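User: For my dataset I need records formatted as: sequence, then C-alpha cells, nothing else. Please produce one.
Assistant:
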Amino acid sequence: MSENVWRPMTNISHDCFGCGQHNHHGLKMRFFTDEQQVRSELVIPEHLRGWSNLAHGGVITTILDEVMGWAGIYLLNQFLLTRDIKVRFRLPVSIGEPVSVYGFIAEQNNDRQVVLAAELRNAKGQVAARSEGNFALFSPEKFATMNVLPAAELERMKGMFSSAQRDSVAAFQAARRAENALAESADS
C-alpha cells in the first residue's frame, strides 16, 4: 500500500463495536490516514473466534465494513450507510495475530452513493480478505432528518470529516508554535 505518512484520526464513537474504545466486547479499532486511504492495525481477540484458532468470518466482515465506513466519512466529508457488502476470503485469519486493514474509495459516480473497498492483510502482509461495498451518502443536514443519531452525537461525528480533522490539527500545530515561541521569548 502507500508509503505516505500515516496520521492518527480522532475517534468520537466510544461505544461502537468496531471502533469504540470503551466497548469491552468490541474490536477497539484505531484509524490512521494518509489522505488517500484509511488504515487500522489490530489483533482480533480470542472471544471473537470462529472455530479452533480462526477469526470468525462475520468479525472479518465487520472489520472490513468499519474501515470502509471510516474511509468514506473521512475522505468524502459525508455520512454514509452500508447498502451491501461483498467479501472475498482468500486466506484463513488467526485470532491473536496482528492484522492490517486498509479502506479506500473504489468508485464514485454521483453524490448519492459510493463504492468503497478494503483489504485485510495478515502479519506476513498477505491479503487475507477483500471487500467491496455500496454505500448510500448523506449530507449532515439529510442525516439529521433521519433521526439515526442524537443531534449532539451527529455534531461530534462531523469531527471525523477530513476538513474538520485537518482544521483541528492545524489549530493544534498553531497553538504548539505559539507555546514554543512564548517559551523561547521567556528564555531570552
